[in-house]
Specification:
Elements: H1 2-27, E1 29-34, E2 39-44, E3 49-54, H2 64-94
Antiparallel strand pairs: 1-2, 2-3
Helix pairs in contact: 1-2
């Protein structure tokens, strides 16, 4: 029974650590650019978009499609980076236990 109590305490600590990490990720800033930096997307550590910056030099009313493509590329990249950041931090926290989602 002692081992079970010890394991339960470890699980509770892990749950607290995961909750803390989730809060930290809300404030984490992840950035990606497209078009050599003319479009920049910023998200938090959960991949939620925070900002989009567009260099005025790429705003061409005759080529809106290119601007849309650049924005989409920057957003997709920042979301990929945010997911990678979150997964890496979670893996570091759990020690790569391979726990199923929702367990902690």
């Amino acid at each position: 029974m002692r081992d079970l109590g010890k394991m339960m305490k470890q699980v509770q600590k892990l749950q607290q650590d995961v909750a803390r990490l989730q809060e930290e990720l809300k404030d984490e800033r992840v950035e990606a650019t497209a078009g050599g930096g003319v479009v920049r997307a910023v998200a938090n550590g959960h991949g939620e978009m925070q900002e989009i910056m567009i260099d005025p030099s790429v705003v061409d009313p005759g080529d809106v499609g290119m601007l849309q493509d650049l924005i989409l590329a920057a957003v997709n990249e920042v979301q990929r980076l945010a997911k990678q950041t979150e997964e890496g931090r979670m893996k570091a926290l759990t020690g790569g236990l391979g726990l199923p989602p929702g367990l902690v």
